Amino acid sequence: MSQSIAVNPDRLLPADPGTRNIARSLLSRVQDLPILSPHGHVDAAVIEQNTPFPDPAALLVSPDHYVTRLIHASGVPFDRLRAGGATGPRDVWREFCRAWPLFEGTASGYWLRTQLVSVFGVDAELSADAADASYDAIAARLAEPGFRPRELFKDFNIEVLATTDDPLDSLASHKAIDADPTFHGRVLPTFRPDAYLNIAHPAWAGNVERLIGEAGDGAEGYAGYIAALENRRRYFVEHGAVSADHGVRTPATLKLDPAEAARLFDLARSGQATPADRDVFEAHMMYQMARMSVEDGLVMTIHPGSFRNHHEPTFNAFGADTGHDIPVATNYTEAIRPLLQDFGTAKDFHLVLFTLDETVFSRELAPLAGFYPAVYLGAPWWFLDAPDAMLRFRSAVTETAGFSRSSGFIDDTRAFCSIPARHDASRRIEASFLARLVAEHRISEARAHELIVDVVDGSPRRVFKL
Amino acid sequence: MSQSIAVNPDRLLPADPGTRNIARSLLSRVQDLPILSPHGHVDAAVIEQNTPFPDPAALLVSPDHYVTRLIHASGVPFDRLRAGGATGPRDVWREFCRAWPLFEGTASGYWLRTQLVSVFGVDAELSADAADASYDAIAARLAEPGFRPRELFKDFNIEVLATTDDPLDSLASHKAIDADPTFHGRVLPTFRPDAYLNIAHPAWAGNVERLIGEAGDGAEGYAGYIAALENRRRYFVEHGAVSADHGVRTPATLKLDPAEAARLFDLARSGQATPADRDVFEAHMMYQMARMSVEDGLVMTIHPGSFRNHHEPTFNAFGADTGHDIPVATNYTEAIRPLLQDFGTAKDFHLVLFTLDETVFSRELAPLAGFYPAVYLGAPWWFLDAPDAMLRFRSAVTETAGFSRSSGFIDDTRAFCSIPARHDASRRIEASFLARLVAEHRISEARAHELIVDVVDGSPRRVFKL
Amino acid sequence: MSQSIAVNPDRLLPADPGTRNIARSLLSRVQDLPILSPHGHVDAAVIEQNTPFPDPAALLVSPDHYVTRLIHASGVPFDRLRAGGATGPRDVWREFCRAWPLFEGTASGYWLRTQLVSVFGVDAELSADAADASYDAIAARLAEPGFRPRELFKDFNIEVLATTDDPLDSLASHKAIDADPTFHGRVLPTFRPDAYLNIAHPAWAGNVERLIGEAGDGAEGYAGYIAALENRRRYFVEHGAVSADHGVRTPATLKLDPAEAARLFDLARSGQATPADRDVFEAHMMYQMARMSVEDGLVMTIHPGSFRNHHEPTFNAFGADTGHDIPVATNYTEAIRPLLQDFGTAKDFHLVLFTLDETVFSRELAPLAGFYPAVYLGAPWWFLDAPDAMLRFRSAVTETAGFSRSSGFIDDTRAFCSIPARHDASRRIEASFLARLVAEHRISEARAHELIVDVVDGSPRRVFKL
Most buried by CB count within 10 Å: which residue of B52, C32, C412, C438? Predict the structure, then answer.
């Protein structure tokens, strides 16, 4: 029997014995529910083609910026964390095993340990000495015929998995999966137009030109741009998308009249827009995205507050998503107001607000979600989807907004094999939070049993229209 | 015997058995102390005239924006939450009962459940199916002759209840109550001049004209305005007021020379003040309010940081205080400095600072209250007067400012029947916090017994000069 | 046997019995480790000359602004808290004893009580009635021959104590201590150039002139200034310094070209720099300090976010460091970026970031320290180095950055006799935090035993290059 803490049945549950007993009972209600993952970054083609997983390093280390960032902080350059040149996958894995103690107490460490034991059957703690042994064990598992994305999709009990996609993506993989009668999960695209809305994005001008050319109904300029966005959103809806996602620096929104919007758009395309012009135009486009969501029914999700690519030399050498997106203070109340003035009570409009700045949980998000029918509290995200942070989130928002106004858990991951560990951790934390309220006689135990099912299963179905 | 969690003797107390035992013992010291409510929104006329309470919906649902906001968020339009036209009180009550599960885990849910059981004798959980039964039970209770404001005032063991009043209010009700030898509670007015200081307030110009006309000693313009404010404050003091309250967007303060203040005042009255002019003038008036407090002894309380009437369509249709006042980030350190430079150590000046932004608890309020004799920490307010938030407050401020620098509990409510539940909850949380410090050997149990009495009873008497 | 909570072996440990048992075991691993104090404000001359401590009031009350501020807040003027004129040390001590109940629950109260019992043998609680008795007991202890700085340094088991020093200090005391074969502790200087970098500092112009004159290698102006700073840093390094410390209003950094820097420097010396000029120049000098740290190896520590001398009348009467430095909101992500662009991955550069604004723990500091090899999380500081705040810190940063990226405890004190109490409290909190993670099966108990030794002993040695 494994002695790893990763399989302890009480992991993440509260220490107080009475509260733990309640939490165990609550957890048992939801442990076998299917996984609903309405926002994440797995590639649909991997599911479609049932691509075998690569080697342990390329699967678990190199692409995961949660992992590489902390190893980088310990002084290991990134080129030793991705295979290439003289560096082989075993070298990368050895670096990772050497760095393993750094992950104690982190969310990444928790997910990794849980995966290693539950998915890969590696019970022993990782260590530099035994790096090759763990590498071989995982590699052997990866070579097993049953260890493919589609089989794991079923083993993991995933019911819905949303991907994140470029607006001009053909969605060919989604179509193929959907058309395959032998595959029973749902793999849904998500419309993510950042690189078409953010003028400062290096690809913006080219993207916009392609967008208008391919989907603008023959219209030019701003009119073509808006029409093309509407068309592509409709295309996504037709192929199963339930949401449109927006990664922005600030949640600013603004309604411009069309002539002014067109003027700024043309200015931007001519390369003459000032930073202030760009901010105004982008705020207007957030307003337009909401307007389109009201019309086409896509749930609108906003992920603001990250200063992307903080370290330019690393960006130049290794590209984006390499672990140096750093949060900044976020303010929603005034920024989101123009959008909510017009759409905050619009029928069937769902707007899910995320944050990397915990201070807005109690100050802004719970009050907004506690009034506007459209607004839902996004689950703790990125640096905050960890046990203590998730408990702080529930503590901060529940007393104002209750349980009905939150989105349900979002794993937001590109690490397919970590999905069960992440959802399991979230369920344990929901059970822990509710168990405390029961122990403090703030909620009856019977009601808590209903609530945990609703939080884990009902909320994501309702909020994301699954 | 009722099985409701609302009457569990250990409700809100910590789960750990040893800590809970200490908390029980601490709580027993203060459970029977009289209620001191130095800030709230009950109407004095209701006490004076001993007005019977209206029907259950008009008493417990329609006027309580904590309640209606969350039902509104679930998609119920406001016109179904207030009787009128085809909608009767029973319809409103049914909507409320249907929505009751939304309130699990919220502060409002806690207060409502406690009231229903302890004040109205309704032990069964509310439900849509039994809506009419609970309506009838409450209506029957409301019809009992002993169920009137004055009788409840005594039953609730209220010693002091402060109201919130317009500066030109005659205070007739307060005078009548005070003159009545058969009524033994104290009902104190509070001077609240927001609508006379906030230039953007729709009634400002008219208010100012009336104010100067009625109380300006015949002086005109700014001189008459200042004189009138001083006169009306004196009138309030003569009729028992202990504090002046200020609801402001930011806690900015500023000292202008009188000529400049007069110039801006005239500009505002002529409708030509810019937003910047208005901000400057209002900051100056906060300074003036402090100056007057130093002179007349009224405790100054500041409630900043709420963006009022966030959703204009709702404001236009249903008016103010309908649940969409949303907090914004607040900064006190620099804003309040001009005031504190001159009055921070003024003899007998008490300045109670509230916040909707938890981040200022440890960062600004505890350090300010831990140095300035005038500054007191306002109790957690509005979205924050809930069990977990109150514990976060104590944890955030105590290590810097101890227990002596906080205001004591403020219920801030217009819901008269919720007053005992709110004060009881606060006492339970104070007992819980102190019990943890005792369990961790940070405070002796003997000293904790003294502290809880001081926190519940001594602090409000001292800080509000009761 | 003393009954004081100050000697309870379980003080500060968690109440849950199972978690407490784990914490006890963890604590036992580090209770006897030597004290490493890499940042503080003890005067080296006191160690060098083994100066007897003054009377109880001058030792424990008057110079400690943590203590005097809270007594001041209770209404006692500062002149009654320092001996002089008609006020003797016993009068000051009596004021302090009268005020003693104010400190319940505060960090200062905890340190004082612990010192009184453990260092001075005063077991009875302080009280106004017994003020003279406690004064006499402490005074008697102070008169004992073994009660001198050097003897206590050994009794306290201090291995390293860093002081904070003016750049032009001769470091004579440090040299003498180092040269004394009978003294075995290490007393290290710290380079603190605030009064040479902050143009608004009243002594800036004179300081700069002296600096260039004494250490500028004959160069004039900006070139001489930079050379002199480099020279004095080298002098500090040669005499054992391991770090350079910077107290700044904001953590702004900026790289100017030398000509522009020289222009602003000359403008500042001529008294013509605008506030904006000063901000730019100071941000540039932070960048220069980092550049010099990269070259000379001094660890760079930044302590931002305090609005110094908030109450001008108190500053005018009693000087700086009198308890009215009040924190303001801090933002690191954008401010520190110019520095990190160039030096964030520089070899052997250590940059320790402190904050008085808890919101940056999870939002900015953990993400920065979790990517940049140079960045370390400064321990909770000033208003935040208290039990609950230290637990909030660990909870906020660990899930992103683990344990390896924090600086280890910093006592930051000028109160020599409080050093053991402060380090002991920190070790108890580290044990408490780790014990919870063990109880929740997030870390194995074996690994927690290694981690606590590393956190208490390994981190400060590594981060401060001791």
Answer: C438
Task: Look at residue B1 in the predicted model and tell me its pLDDT.
Answer: 40
Mean pLDDT of C44-69: 96
Query: Is the CA virtual torsion C438, C441, C443, C444 positive or negative?
Result: positive
How many C-beta neighbours within 10 Å does residue B3 have? 10
Contacts of residue C5, Cβ cutoff 8 Å, sequence gap at least 6: B441, B442, B443, B444, C11, C113
The one-character DSSP state at A33 is S
Q: What is the pLDDT of residue A4?
A: 84
Residue range B316-327: mean pLDDT, rounded: 96
- Spatial neighbors of C159 by CB under 8 A, at least 6 apart, are C34, C35, C36, C185, C186
In chain C, the largest separation of any two C-alpha atoms, in whole Å, equals: 69
The conformational region for residue A408 under phi > 0 = left, psi -120 to 50 = alpha, else beta, is left
pLDDT at A12 over 70: yes
CB contact under 8 A, B326 and A368: yes
Dihedral (CA of A164, A165, A170, A173) sign? negative
Which position has the token pair 């200490």? Answer: B22
Q: What is the largest CA-CA distance in chain A?
A: 70
Choose among C19, C362, C404: nearest Cβ to A74. Answer: C404
- Tokens for C14? 């968690």
C420 to each of B235, B459, C104, C115, C445, how far by Cα in Å?
57, 34, 20, 8, 26
Q: How confident is the model at residue C1 (pLDDT cuts 50, 70, 90)?
A: very low
Does the pLDDT at position C450 exceed 60?
Answer: yes
Of residues B11, B101, B327, nearest to A440 (C-beta): B11
Picking from B102, B329, B388, the nearest residue to A402 by CB comes out as: B102
pLDDT for residue C306: 97
Contact B413, B42 (CB under 8 A): yes
Q: What are the residues facing B188 on neighbouring strands?
A: B162
Tens of pLDDT, residues A307-324: 999 999 999 999 999 999
- Position B4 scores a pLDDT of 84
Q: What are phi and psi of C84, to 5 degrees?
A: 155, 145
- Please enumerate in sequence order all residues whose Cβ is within 8 A of that of C436, keeping only pairs 6 or more positions apart, or say none: A15, C14, C19
Mean pLDDT throughout A34-48? 97
Q: How far is C274 from chain B (nearest CA, A)?
A: 20
pLDDT at residue A58 is higher than 60: yes
Contacts of A263 (CB under 8 A, 6+ apart): none
Q: Answer for the pair A389, A398: CB distance below 8 angstroms, yes or no.
A: no
Closest CA to C322 of C55, C56, C78: C78
- Interchain CB contact of A453 with C (< 8 Å): no
Predicted local distance difference test score (pLDDT) of residue A40? 97
Please report, for residues B428, B450, B451, C105, C351, the alpha-carbon distance to residue B433 in angstroms, rounded to integers and kept in the order given: 9, 14, 11, 11, 37
Q: Which of B383, B380, B429, B437 is nearest to A442 (CA)?
A: B429
Please list, residue by residue across C249-285, b when 16 or more beta carbons sit within 10 angstroms of its beta carbon and e when fewer do.
bbbbbbebeeeebbebbebbbeeebeeebbbbbbbbb
- C334 CB neighbours in chain A (<8 A) are 307, 328
Alpha helix ranges (H) inside C327-418: 337-343, 359-360, 366-369, 387-401
* Alpha helices in B16-130, H assignment, sequence order: 17-30, 44-49, 56-60, 65-73, 89-99, 107-118
- Chains in touch with A (3+ beta-carbon pairs under 8 Å) read B, C
Give yes or no for a contact between A3 and C447, defined as CB atoms under 8 angstroms apart. no
The overall pTM is greater than 0.90: yes
Structure confidence at residue A1 (pLDDT): 41
Long-range contacts from B214-218, C-beta under 8 angstroms, 24+ separation = B214/B168, B215/B168
Helices (H), B100-220: 107-118, 131-143, 149-155, 172-179, 194-197, 204-215
B400 contacts C383? CB cut-off 8 A: yes
